[in-house]
Amino acid sequence: MQSDDTSEKHLSPWWRKGVIAALLVGFVLEILIAFQAYQNAPPVPDSVRDGSGQIVFTGADIVAGQQIFLKYGLMENGSIWGHGAYLGPDFSAQYLHELGLSVSRGLAPQRFGRDFEALSSQEREILSKEVSLLLKENRYDEKAKTLLLTPFEAQAFRQQIAAWTRYFTDPATSGGLPAKYISDAKELHDLTAFFAWTAWASIANRPDTDFSYTNNFPYDPALGNTPTSQTVLWSALSLITLLTGIALVLSAFGKFAYLGWKGTGEHVHPQMLPGVATAGQRGLVKYFLAAVLLFLFQVMVGGATAHFRADPGSFYGFDLATILPSNLLRTWHLQSAIFWIATSFVAGGLLLGQALGDKEPRGQAKLIHGLFGALVLVVAGSLFGELAGLRQWLGDLWFWFGHQGWEYLDLGRGWQILLAIGLIGWVLMLLRSVMPALLDPNRREITTLFLLAALAIPVFYLPAFFFGTTTNFTVVDNWRFWIIHLWVEGFFELFVTVMVAVTFFRLGMVSRTTAARVIYLDAILFLGSGIVGTGHHWYFSGQSNLNMSLSALFSAMEVVPLTLLTLDAWDFVKLTRSHCDVCGQPVNIPHKWAFYFLMAVGFWNFVGAGIFGFLINLPIVSYFEVGTLLTPNHGHMALMGVFGMEALALMVLCFRQVLTEEQWAGPQHLIRISFWGLNIGLAMMAAGSLFPGGVLQVYDVLQNGYWHARGLDYLNRDLTRLIEWGRMPGDVVFIAAGVVPMVLAAAMTYWRMKTTAPAPVAAGE
Asked: Are 524 and 17 in contact, with CB atoms under 8 Å apart?
């Protein structure tokens, strides 16, 4: 049966207006939230004094401590306000809990005439309330920019310096950091001052409110840090927007039968024929070979990083922390993941750009080779720079060419600048490729969308340059998640949709009208909720309740487009039909395994981003969960399952494009094994370790407080260790049956392509 819109030659202008409206509303609200971050960030006092007026530490010490935190890569060891790594403690929560114990021990003899340990449970409860009131009182003088501490708090600070000195002494207690990692007395003093400031912001009431700067995070009921009423309220109200959004979208899909991947009733035939590739497209194979080697590197260092949670003291009897400490391995794990996926997207964009433009521009192959050299420089240089930075080899240049220190944005600022320049050059190369399509009215719209989606990638990377080592942590987290969430989960997600649409269009699966409509629909749904929804990362990082209210309402609606994946799944599968619905001619879709990887993208988008993402999305859930294993459970399933599978789909598409039918037999067998190995291994990771481990850890938060679930007492439990070891089978399947076969397929493709003369193809040179 012919779909309702087969007679349409042009899309309704309301699609474009809808995207513009979604972008306008989203960015107006998001910029307002960013402005509020500067206004409401926890203040850094010029001086912190005790009751006698003596300086305990200064604002300069706090800022210097933050720089030490970054210079030594401690955000890849532990976390601040739940954001960071999971190998060490949450430094703010640990300091806060020890502060409470220290004050309790100091007050107990005054109130009850005996030590804290000798008090009855009733006496401890009375004392706990007094300690809570004492710590929650905000003694910051905004005019004098001075923070006053009680004598007990000042004494606790001095005790904490010794405690953190011990922490950095032994790899077994520091989550795999080198022995005596930080030993300089001044650095330890300043670092402790930074931790003290984050703990103060976690419990001191924001002026004119009854909750802290971090909305009472972390959870520590003994000190009165419990969820605020706003956290509960906006969690409940966000469910209303979720259900309303789902109802509206399902209603629209019911009324307009042509929405989604409706490929029936259209006169379409493949326009990307395998075995026929230009010099530039053949030059892209080395991008994918480099990407899959980076992929192998990423999973190997990822496995070693996971080992530090299971057995932080040794690596099968070998002192790995001395040579490759856990914070370096985790840095490489994250950065290489971003690099191999981004490299695949860059190459995939160039592949599809040439397919849209039909003819390869003169000199494009040379530009492709040049861009590859630039990518190698940035990747190799930044990875080595991170090693050199953490080894303290670069002196004052650590921020520029070493380890910048911010999780996910670890590469030095100089490498970031080169990366941004390379991305701009990539967009210009795409423009050269698609210029003929821009001049063709039949291809202009989808080509314009392709270019705009590509342009958004370098443009929205700019917030990575909006902060430095001395910027307030709250402000940094605001811009950092513009990259982690908005750049990756927003505009990379949109670019994924565009590339899938272009792929299906050029493979003859859908018409240009269907492809363009899907892009507009996804842009409205993903960006309409996702731009403001970025703020769900900022519930407890020093932002105001304006962010919590808006972010909770919009972030809940991020699940709406993901639920449509189930509604649209069968239409997606039917795109592989074997004949044209209009002329009845046979239609051969040769890129079978690329299509399978795209189906995996849809599956993991629903499971990883939809189910596991929404599980931790509500403010009240995030309050207890952030920084537990449920976060990497969502992260692994979403990043690898969505963006990784899309990168592999582009990789397989390119491999098939440059090989003839006879050459394809060998790589195809390996790719089949890889497809099942990757998907089964990823599922085993979640089911065998990450999800049950996360649930168990959240339960411990509820039972004992956030500090305990992130501390050594919890990590050293037998059941916790057993679950950590439970990840190994999934890792082995993922690496041995998933990654390794893809590496072999890439090497075989590259070898067969290099040893075979290219088939003749039309080109502009």
From this structure: no
Same domain, 27 and 99: no
Q: Bridge-partner residues for 406, per DSSP?
A: 409
**CB neighbours of 488 closer than 8 A, spacing ≥ 6?**
639, 643
**Residues 153-180: pLDDT tens digits?**
999 999 999 999 999 998 888 989 999 9
| Structural domains counted in the chain | 2
Strands 146-148 and 47-49: parallel
pLDDT under 50: residue ranges of the chain: 1-8, 267, 762-765
90: which 2 tokens? 């949450």
**Contact present, 364 and 433 (Cβ < 8 Å):** yes
Cβ distance 637 to 604 under 8 Å?
Answer: yes
Which residues, at least 6 apart from 254, have a Cβ–Cβ distance to it below 8 Å?
Answer: none
Place of tokens 């053949």: 282
Domain co-membership, 212 together with 305: no
User: 459: which 2 tokens?
Assistant: 């443009």
The whole domain housing 137 covers 44-226
Helix (H, G, I), strand (E, B) or coil at 208: coil
Q: Which residues of 261-298 are buried (b: 16+ CB within 10 A; e: fewer)?
A: bbbbbbebeeebebbebbbbbbbbbbbbbbbbbbbbbb
CATH number of the domain to which 511 belongs? 1.20.210.10
Instruction: Please report, as a single letter, which amino acid is at residue 672.
Output: R
98: β partners? none
Q: Closest Cα partner for 282 from 658, 692, 746?
A: 658
Counting every residue written for the chain, the total comes to 765
Return the structure tokens found at 178: 């080198």
Domain assignment present for residue 440? The answer is yes
Q: Is 487 part of any domain?
A: yes
Residue 381: enclosing H or E segment and its boundaries?
Answer: helix 364-390
- Rounded-to-integer distance, Cα 337 and Cα 690, Å: 18
Contact 506, 355 (CB under 8 A): yes
Say yes or no: 401 and 292 in one domain.
yes
- Whose structure tokens read 């440059």? 658
Smallest CA-to-CA distance from 511 within 582, 452, 564 is with 582
Residue 762: predicted pLDDT: 47
683 close to 616: Cβ distance less than 8 angstroms: no
pTM of the complete model: 0.93
Omega cis (within 30) before 361? no
The CA-atom distances, in angstroms, between 265 and each of 7, 20, 64 are: 10, 30, 65
Please report how many Cα atoms fall inside a 13 Å half-sphere around the Cα of residue 167, on the Cβ side.
Answer: 23
Residues 243 and 313 in one domain: yes
545-556 and 13-40 are packed helices; what angle lies between their axes, rounded to 10 degrees? 150
Strand-pair partners of 48: 57, 147
Helices (H), 607-644: 612-615, 619-625, 630-638
User: What is the per-residue pLDDT for 501?
Assistant: 85
Question: Which pLDDT score is estimated for 570?
Answer: 59
